[in-house]
Amino acid sequence: MELDKKDKTSTPHLFYNQPKVVSLGDFAETDDERAVLSHWIHNMEAADTCYQEVAKGLVPEELFESLKKSNISTREHRGQQVLFPELFRVPFPPPADPSFTFIDLFAGIGGFRIAMQECGGKCVFSSEWDKAAQKTYFDNYGEVPFGDITRDWVKGLIPKQFDVLCAGFPCQPFSRAGVSARVANNQSHGFADKTQGTLFFDIMEIIRARRPLIVFLENVRNLVSHDKGKTFSIIKESIESEGYSFNYSIIDSSPLVPQKRVRCYMVCIRDGGKFKFPSIKGPPLPLSSILEDQPDESFTISDNLWAGHKRRTARNLERGAGFTAFTADASKPANTLVARYYKDGKECLIPQEGENPRMLTPRECARLQGFPETFVMRGSKSDLYRQMGNSVAVPVIRSIGKEIKEQILVGGGGNEIRNRSERAV
């Protein structure tokens, strides 16, 4: 283990005789320590995790034994104690009676998590390397995600048994815009991108080691055609070689959220099995349905920026290449929200009578991705825009998650599929 043992000779609080608020910061100094402690407290009932072993070296023995005895993560204790209230008094705590378990890789701000929890799942492991996104995740779910998933120590902490592996793995190396930008700058893309493109193989390493029942992945539509289909073939063949069926669908989110977000969703089942994706159809929702009545004037773009947008748009239209910037038609869904939106907002500019157009507010961006109004958003505008642009469309994940639960985990032939082979240990 990478964590140092703590000095447990003294106990800073008399936990039950003289109650006092106890937080992660009282015992955990690093992000790794905070991640271990929050994961252990939320998963005390699980016997197959390494969290307890590491957490024992972080907190005083009296507290450690008290926590184990009371198991404050259970329903009867949750929210009633002053021990680690930051883990439980959050908008989206773990479900009290989960029907399945999942892990949340490349978690971002928890688009997969919030949807899968609504389907009855409990998250037993999360990882996300971006520090700002980690804070947003903690504010909403009461758990600190582990950082770099490529580290063997972090992979070793993943529980031995869980039902669903969820991952919206980094899409920039495969997206149409990302590939174009990398080619223009003579940079690698796809699997040749050493920083992000190869993270799929870390997912495969976890699949081989833990063999979850379901692998649920999301990426850009361009993944299917990237490098003349070779990239997608590698992904499909890699998963099938481990004994999983490979089912995928290209889905547009606009009937569920007012955004044209077309993504590739993959559901892979251990030991084979077909999966029928939900039919997500209907009229696209209008952008006007999520706009604020009186947004702050700070979201109105400057004269210089608007003039620059019009100048670049005219030039790119003339040469037939490059990005363009137009004001949005609020009666139609917005264009795809992207991580770079914070730079200049050109993907979705809201027209204003007698003024320059404005950018979407972070809350409007959250609505475009289907996050509830109670979702906590703190931090800089640029961080929040990036986080929302990198997120999944929550209602689409929820719709697919419901079908996974019904078709495979608890309904239909779920028990039969579950029993085809022993779980990995």
Describe it for me?
- The protein is α/β, with parallel strands linked by helices.
- The protein has three domains: 1-89, no CATH class; 96-283 and 393-418, Rossmann fold (3-Layer(aba) Sandwich), CATH 3.40.50.150; 287-390, DNA Methylase, Chain A, domain 2.
- Helices cover 33% and strands 11% of the residues.
- It is built from 15 helices and eight strands.
- The protein has helices at residues 31-42, 51-55, 61-70, 111-118, 131-141, 152-156, 176-184, 199-210, 230-240, 303-319, 341-344, 362-368, 381-390, 394-409, 414-418; strands at residues 100-105, 121-126, 164-167, 214-220, 247-252, 262-269, 349-352, 355-359.
- The strands form two sheets. A six-stranded mixed sheet has the order 2-1-3-4-6-5, with helices on one face. A two-stranded antiparallel ribbon has the order 7-8.
- Helix 4 packs across helix 14.
- The longest helix has 17 residues, at 303-319.
- It is globular, with a radius of gyration of 23 Å.
- The two termini are 20 Å apart.
